[in-house]
Design a protein that fits this description.
By secondary structure, the protein is mainly alpha-helical. The chain has 2 helices and no strands. The chain starts with about 50 loop residues before the first helix and ends with a helix.
Amino acid sequence: MPSKKPADLSPSLVAVKGQASPSAAAAGRPPEASPARSPASAPLNFKVDAEFRRRFRRRAAEADLKLNELLREALDAWEQQRGLA
């Protein structure tokens, strides 16, 4: 069995804690988005019965909408019907 050769680590590939800097390839890229949810994308959780869930999912699929898109349209229509929009 051949022995493994240790990796050749150049000084530009090794970061010292507190002294890291972005590589030249990363210099032009925008910073990556944080995985944490922003308040604008916070989940809305509530319980509905199974039949309502099936109807809601079916209508969204029939209209080729995401569930949150159908929910927004439903709220918009409800507000408009009541003169709140």
